[in-house]
Amino acid sequence: MRAEDILVPDPSGVCCKLGGFHIDPTQPVPRALITHGHSDHARAGHGAVLATQETLDIMRLRYGENFAGSTQAIGYGESIDLGGVRVSFHPAGHVLGSAQIKVEAGGLRVVAAGDYKDVADPTCAPFETVPCDVFITEATFGLPVFRHHDAQGEVAKLLHSVTLFPDRAHLVGAYSLGKAQRVIALLRQAGYDKTIYLHGAMEKITAYYQSRGIDLGPVELVRGAKKSDLAGTITLCPPSAIGDLWSRRFPDPVAAFASGWMRVRARARQRGVTLPLVISDHADWDGLVATIAATGASEIWVTHGQEDALVHWCRSRGLKARPLDIVGYGDEEESENPAPAEGGA
Ligand SMILES: [Zn+2]
Ligand SMILES: [Zn+2]
Q: Rounded to the nearest whole angstrom, what is the distance from the C-alpha of residue 326 to the centroid of ligand 2?
């Protein structure tokens, strides 16, 4: 059996004809297996959805009760049979509930990793290497220039700035699913025990993380807080809120942004960010190539991001590699495509 007999890329995503399902389809399909809750992977309107309980809950929070015809939850390590194809979910270390999906038939093992990172994150289960024959990887930061810093070190920079400017508010731009909660958890790990404020857009997801037992300490909505009370505090908000009217409620705000793209100075400047924090929920270049090697796969498919360098790296190692060119991934979160001037170097 060849990999293409198990999974084929089609306009809706990656399709398993044998099992009758798609993985992270970008258009409505009868049966979808979803790796995680970010909106470029998890869309509303499918017939049946199979995902981890957390991913299903997050989809429900974002899209409402009727986001799919029916749902089925699957735990990490659990496997089920779909039309003679064996399917199992494994931790991807990306956001709460994120999973790699392993598909096995005729002795061939294919793993679709979705988005992933191979570094510690106090808010989700750690990435697990799943040995396979074909590994389907993202390439959001698939250029050697992308080497993420140590996240704790970045959070230390933020705390240092708070100490330096006790009369100013610190606004930290962070994506509302995953990154915001991780930054809060990292602040707690660093010993910061004061109330952390939230933009309203992060309320539901953050409360959901807490309901799943992730300790984020005291968090409060910034809505209603007095301007003078916000001096010396930290507030998490969507990146787009940093430059808008909303930010005027804060005393002399310091603009920070937690993203892998903050490795690119021009991008920080463009957004008016004075305190860039290189904290990413995607593997960096070293993480991508180390993971590819660790799976033992002889064939690599690259779904989205900066495919060229990664495909080239694989081929230079004697691995078969191909870009999948699926349209529709990378629309949310930090998978957004960099401007040409930033990405090409
Ligand atoms: Zn994602
Ligand atoms: Zn993505």
A: 11
Give pLDDT, residue 341: 31
Q: How far is the CA of 226 from the centre of ligand 1 (A)?
A: 34
Residues of the chain with pLDDT under 50: 334-345
The reported pLDDT for the residue numbered 339 is: 30
Residue owning tokens 């399709």: 15
* CA 233 / ligand 2 centre spacing (Å): 31
Question: Across the chain, what does the average pLDDT equal?
Answer: 92
